[in-house]
Amino acid sequence: MKSISVGIVTTVHVFGDPRIYHKQARSLADAGYEVSYIGKFGEGATPHPHIKHYFLPSQGFLLRLVNIFRALNLAVKANCRVYHLHDPELLPVGLLLKLLFRKKVVYDVHELYFDAISRKSYLSPKIAKALSRIYYYLDRFCLRIFDAFILAEESYQSFYQSGKSNVITIQNFISKRLIAEGVNSQLNATIKMVYVGGVTESRGIWEMVRLVELIRTDLAVELHIIGPSFSQELDHKIRDCIQQKKLDDVITLYGRMPYLDAQELLKEFDVGLILLHPIPNYETSIPTKLFEYMSKGLAVILHQVPLWDNFVRTNHCGISIDIFALEEHKERIVQFLLNAGELEKIKTRNPTTVSQYFTWEKEEQKLLDLYKRLHR
Fold first, then answer.
1. 174 phi, psi to nearest 5 deg
2. What is the pTM for the complete model shown?
3. By residue range, what is the domain housing residue 269?
4. Which segment of 127-136, 180-189, 197-206 scores lowest on mean pLDDT?
């Protein structure tokens, strides 16, 4: 039976995005589907040999609208049977592909966008509220029209399920091939902490800097930040702050790094940081970087969001703290980092925990089952 052709479309995410490219696109291609990737080109990522690539030019925020039309044009050119969309901006494209071109359409919900849009700092409150409302109703309409909605988190089900048979949850777990084997549980002489991901204020950049500033008087510690800053202005502020606090020798900024390179580099560290602020869009999700850290044998330090705190307590993978009261938690953090015996146990245990309960391969089967249904 000939497999269907699949067009994976994103105008926002970078090439090599873990969920879109390294998990979903790769899984479908490896399963024999004819996969076409339509999205921005990115330096440093290696194209999969069995995926056709239609690259969009990278652009600033104001030109994203242009790429939406380009994406539609390339999608029509690719002439796939199913289109898998990954951005809220692409909902109108999905409607055109479904209603005008009679294609099957899947929409992948990475976050609760109606809430995320309402909180965009670069939009005025009135515009953000209006766009959030528009998205809400467009999203509800597409839920009735599209062939499937894929949710990245179980917590989104209360918003989307309501008896809908075309809604499934495929969580963003880690691929088995990326789980470290034979982890060296021995700590570095200097405790090496790391953060991987986009660098923003709401993702805790200032709390990370403050944490290092607080504990460096009690132990030898370094912080390595891997990921791009939200803006050049923020990047300059971060670098100025590090210099003013005389932390140049203990905080290293790497900027954007290809996903697989960052995953390989993680093996060199001891502790992964997740100091995200408790906004609704974060509170209801387990951060993917938690599984990435654990898979490489890192202990974790997280903010005391109830969902995350319960995860840490259940899986004994690190500690949770109140990032808005770091001074009060300083002694507990220092004791945690100085307890070499317990840290080494955590570093040994975490890859096994991920391998047993949180692998992409278990979620991958849901994706393949969905595409089998779409083929009927």
1. -95, 140
2. 0.89
3. 177-357
4. 180-189
